[in-house]
Amino acid sequence: MHEDGYIYEEAKLLSLLAGGSEYAFQVLYDRYRAHIYQTAIRYLKSPLLAQEVVQDVFLKLWFKRATINEEKGIEAWLFTVAKNNIINRLKKIAREWKALAGFKLVAATVTDNTADKMQDAFYNELLQQAIRELPEQQQKVFQLARFEQLTYIQIGEQMGLSPLTVKTHMSRALAHIRRFFEEHGEIFFSILVLLSFR
């Protein structure tokens, strides 16, 4: 598409989006999500966190849709939001690793052997137990987000909830899972499960 036509189309999409168009939102989501995801995973090294960055960016787009400056362009706006989100997450990770160093906990190098597989199976079983303890809606939100990789917008549409409510359920579910691991003496893994969930 010619550059002028592309700019015109983008301005039209932003205008539609400002009016609450889900179609315009979906077009922008499909156009930019992969690039944002790749940028996030390059710095965060975690599919889980990269997906959360994508969801946070587009959740903010939806709530800020009426105030976005069309002249500055949506791509620049999205990547500014993504950059700030990534920086905040990196700062949080740094704080958590510093706290771990205080406990003198060291992560062993991951190797593909029987012991590691048994440990993975143990942690996965703990994770499943933690999920089973969640209230029904939190459990469903967590499963849709993590196992089916739906966005908060898509989950909200499927469950009849607002994206903000979906995000609240997800935050509470992750907090419960983290507490569950800590209560079972897995302090180190309680942090890793949020950074490298598979």
Automatic annotation (TrEMBL):
It comes from the Bacteria. Residues 28-95 form the RNA polymerase sigma-70 region domain. Keywords: Sigma factor, Transcription, Transcription regulation. SUPFAM superfamilies: Sigma2 domain of RNA polymerase sigma factors (SSF88946), Sigma3 and sigma4 domains of RNA polymerase sigma factors (SSF88659). GO terms for biological process: DNA-templated transcription initiation. Residues 125-177 form the RNA polymerase sigma factor 70 region 4 type domain. PANTHER family: RNA POLYMERASE ECF-TYPE SIGMA FACTO, RNA POLYMERASE SIGMA-70 FACTOR ECF SUBFAMILY. This is RNA polymerase sigma-70 factor, ECF subfamily. The lineage of its organism: Bacteria, Pseudomonadati, Bacteroidota, Chitinophagia, Chitinophagales.
